[in-house]
Amino acid sequence: MVALERLASLRRTTDRSESHWLYRRALSFATELRDKETEARIRNSLAVLAWQGGELDEAEKQYGMAAAIIRRDQNTQEVGVVLNGLGVVLTKLDRAGEGWALQRLSEVSREAGERQKADAYSAAAMAIGREIGDKELESLASKLQSPDHTSGNE
């Protein structure tokens, strides 16, 4: 399984179809063995591969599945990395997706104890919510800002 994953990463630049097949094969082993850490890592790699090929829906799906697996293990730093990749994909899709990805990054940063980063992500999400008229995003982003950050903006 690890050998397939490594081979897939080496072939990613030369032959996307072979790389995709190798990742899929490694993924089937990881799921069969119930190795969640490896499954999440492979799904993240499949997401990158899909993104590079312009398959944004597939990239979003794989990033989402990887994030869900990692979130169950409560590894906020790794979830942040995956969600950052997801955010890149969503920015290619639409502005609302970017806002919601930033909002999720704010939540993950807050869980990781990085209040300053969380406030910055939340402020960016709130600005996008205002810009596109997404009241739900704007409201959620404003609620998650730390009290001293919101009082400084009023």
Walkthrough of the structure:
By secondary structure, the chain is mainly alpha-helical. It has 2 domains: 1-75, Serine Threonine Protein Phosphatase 5, Tetratricopeptide repeat (Alpha Horseshoe), CATH 1.25.40.10; 94-148. Helices cover 85% and strands 0% of the residues. The chain has 9 helices and no strands. It has helices at 2-11, 16-32, 36-52, 56-72, 76-93, 95-111, 115-132, 135-144, 147-153.
Explain briefly what this protein structure is.
With 154 residues, the protein is mainly α. The chain has helices spanning 2-11, 16-32, 36-52, 56-72, 76-93, 95-111, 115-132, 135-144, 147-153.
Notable characteristics:
2 domains, Serine Threonine Protein Phosphatase 5, Tetratricopeptide repeat, 154 residues, mainly alpha
Write the layout of secondary structure elements.
Layout: H1 2-11, H2 16-32, H3 36-52, H4 56-72, H5 76-93, H6 95-111, H7 115-132, H8 135-144, H9 147-153
Per CATH, the architecture of the largest domain is: Alpha Horseshoe
Along the chain, the helix and strand elements come as HHHHHHHHH
Give the amount of beta strand, in percent: under 5%
Uncertain regions spanning at least 5 consecutive residues: 150-154
What is the domain total for the residues?
Answer: 2
- CATH-defined superfamily of the largest domain: Tetratricopeptide repeat domain
**How is the quaternary structure best described?**
single chain
**Sheet having the most strands:** none
Shape: globular
